[in-house]
Design a protein that fits this description.
heterodimer; A: about 180 residues; alpha+beta; 2 domains; five-stranded mixed sheet; B: about 190 residues; two-stranded antiparallel sheet; 4 helices; 6 strands; about 35% helix
Chain lengths: ~180, ~190
């Protein structure tokens, strides 16, 4: 009966060992699976982060571009407004008034008022007859006083204001006109 | 014989080089058109100045100022032809004298109108670089006195035009411009 009891003990032990060994194998598998899962999660997180960073970068670039566009638009509008506001508008109004007036006294008053916009009655007036940029063809330069009298005599305002230059006190120091 | 051949080859080469230089010195049709228009504009300006000077309602100070401006349109020493019906004689005055004569005409009302202003000879580049052309105008003159005396005529006149490329300094920088000047004004026809 004793050998049988020993055999049983061995069997139980073997069984225990087997279960133990099997348990170890399972925990290894589980650990590997966990590691893979963690790796996958890490990669997914990295991909998400990368995607997020890329989106952020694109968003930032778009915002910067929008900001630049807005600034350019603002400057453009400011320049346009500058042309639409004084002294561009004022000068154009004087040009029209002087060229269309039939009364010598009132024309002379307009000329004197208009001269108030300028640094001097000898302020140069350039008239572009063709071309643009560095390749411009000019008529013989004149002075603002002579040009205003020209408008008065000829009764035609055929040149448009292309550019004005100002001194520190806001007086016009140079006029560039263009033949229409 | 060899020398003659050499000389003729040299002449042909010089002609070709001269022609090539003239072509490169030419300006684009757009720029040329702008200069043509500028010269026509100067003639129209003169027309307006003459009508102001001749107008008896123009104050003396204004007429004098306008004469100064009109004189600036001409190259120095230019002359203006004056004709009348019934005589073939044409009298030529320096432009300033002509303006003064016009202002002093013994009429109570004077109207002068220029019309049909056009080129009869296009602006052509000369060897000295200047452009020269001729513009023709028709002038309708009407003078009337209070006593009913009236004189009218139509005169066809040819105006020589000179266009030169010049430089000037504006605010410290060099600006190149086209200087259009009127030359002699010759009477070619006078009719009622």
């Amino acid at each position: 009966m004793k050998p049988f009891r020993n055999s049983a003990k061995i069997a139980v032990l073997a069984m225990a060992l087997l279960i133990c060994a099997s348990g170890c194998k399972s925990s290894k598998k589980a650990a590997e699976a966990a590691r893979l899962a963690a790796e996958k999660t890490r990669m997914e997180q990295e991909a998400t982060l990368k995607k997020q960073q890329e989106e952020d970068r694109k968003k930032q670039a778009a915002e910067e571009q929008a900001s630049r566009d807005a600034e350019a638009k603002r400057l453009r509008e400011a320049k346009e407004n500058e042309k639409e506001s004084t002294p561009y508008v004022k000068l154009n109004q004087y040009f029209d008034a002087i060229a269309s007036s039939g009364n010598t006294a009132s024309t002379n008053n307009s000329i004197n008022e208009a001269l108030g916009l300028f640094a001097s009655s000898e302020t140069p007036v350039l008239i572009v007859i063709s071309g643009s940029g560095d390749q411009k063809d000019y008529d013989k330069p004149t002075t603002i006083k002579n040009y205003l009298n020209y408008l008065k005599d000829q009764k035609k305002n055929i040149n448009r204001i292309e550019n004005l230059q100002f001194d520190n006190s806001g007086k016009i120091t140079e006029v560039e006109l263009r033949k229409n | 014989m060899v020398n003659a051949k050499y000389v003729s080859t040299l002449i042909i080469a010089l002609c070709l080089a001269g022609n090539l230089f003239a072509q490169t010195a030419d300006i684009s049709p757009e720029r040329k058109h702008a200069i043509d228009s500028l010269a026509l504009e100067k003639v129209r300006d003169l027309s307006k100045y003459i009508s102001i000077i001749g107008n008896k309602k123009t104050a003396f100070s204004e007429a004098t100022r306008v004469m100064d401006r009109a004189e600036e349109l001409f190259s120095p020493g230019s002359e203006m032809g004056v004709s009348a019906l019934g005589t073939k004689d044409v009298t030529y005055y320096k432009v300033r004298k002509y303006f003064e004569h016009l202002m002093a005409l013994n009429y109570d009302r004077v109207t002068i109108k220029w019309y049909d202003i056009h080129y009869i000879s296009d602006l052509e580049r000369q060897p000295d670089g200047r452009y020269v052309g001729i513009i023709t105008i028709y002038q309708r003159f009407e003078g009337e006195s209070e006593d009913g005396l009236k004189y009218k005529d139509t005169t066809k006149k040819d105006i020589t035009i000179y266009v030169d490329r010049k430089k000037t300094q504006i605010q410290g920088r060099i600006v190149e411009f086209w200087d259009v000047l009127l030359g002699d004004i010759r009477v070619t026809e006078t009719s009622a």
